[in-house]
Amino acid sequence: EVQVVESGGGLVQPGGSLRLSCAASGLTFNNCKMTWVRQAPGKGLEWVANIKQDGSEKNYVDSVKGRFTISRDNAKNSLYLQMNSLRVEDTAVYYCRAKSSGVDYWGQGTLVTVSS
Amino acid sequence: QSVLAQPPSVSAAPGQKVTISCSGSSSNIGNNFVSWYQQFPETAPKLLIYENNKRPSGIPDRFSGSKSGTSATLDITGLQTGDEADYYCLTWDSSLRAGVFGGGTKLTVL
Predict the structure, then answer these.
(1) What is the DSSP pairing of strand B105-109 with strand B85-93?
(2) Which of A16, A93, A98, B37 is deepest in the core (most CB within 10 A)?
């Protein structure tokens, strides 16, 4: 059974940092392109960042460039999102998505709240 | 303001057909594959369609996708009350070098 589990969310003050993790099992992780997607309360889905299977290419939405860093550890079947200089508008549920050859697995999400 | 335009809401009666549109440009839909997702409240999105018109295993053939030029559509036939959800299109934008979602469409089955 495939499992994708995010962790690391929580309450942080504006300007603070958080590191999200995503642990995947039951799939060939190093064959998967990995993506972070977020959803602000009551809003639609927003693509945040992705990383190629071997980590050689990373892409980001403009609003997080220079603040967020996506990374992966294929030996640990894990994906990460280092979030710095957090803003109130970064408040959202953050989902991890694993994509490979027409299959697509998502975690349950982890809530990040940026508030003073 | 999303790069991809979807109608905020659509509605139809049980058993009927509904079409959800997703309009973009040559930098996104025009030159990249489109996926469609279904999302129920407080749950993760579920892939319905990938590469414009392919269905993952387990997705009923009531759901179909197509693409023409810079627009894509999701058709749902034989509507059921259980289809009431939010639907999103997703594609890659070659100019932004980022993925882009449509704003989402809320489907109501009357």
Answers:
(1) antiparallel
(2) B37
CA A47 vs. chain centroid, Å, equals 9
3-state helix, strand, coil split of chain A in percent (to 5) is 10, 55, 35
The shortest C-alpha distance from A46 to chain B (Å) reads 6
Q: What is the pLDDT of residue A5?
A: 98
Q: Phi and psi at residue A89, in whole multiples of 5°?
A: -75, -5
Q: How far apart are the first and last CA of chain A?
A: 40
Rounded to a whole number, what is the distance in Å from the CA of A54 to chain B's nearest CA?
18
A50 contacts B104? CB cut-off 8 A:
no
Residues of A near B (CB-CB distance < 8 A)?
35, 37, 44-47, 50, 59-62, 95, 102-104, 106-109
Q: Are A110 and A20 in contact (CB under 8 A)?
A: yes
Q: Please, what are the averages of pLDDT over each run of 10 residues along chain B (110 residues)? A: 93 97 97 97 96 95 97 98 98 97 96
Angle at A83 between CA A82 and CA A88, to 5 degrees: 165
pLDDT at A102: 77
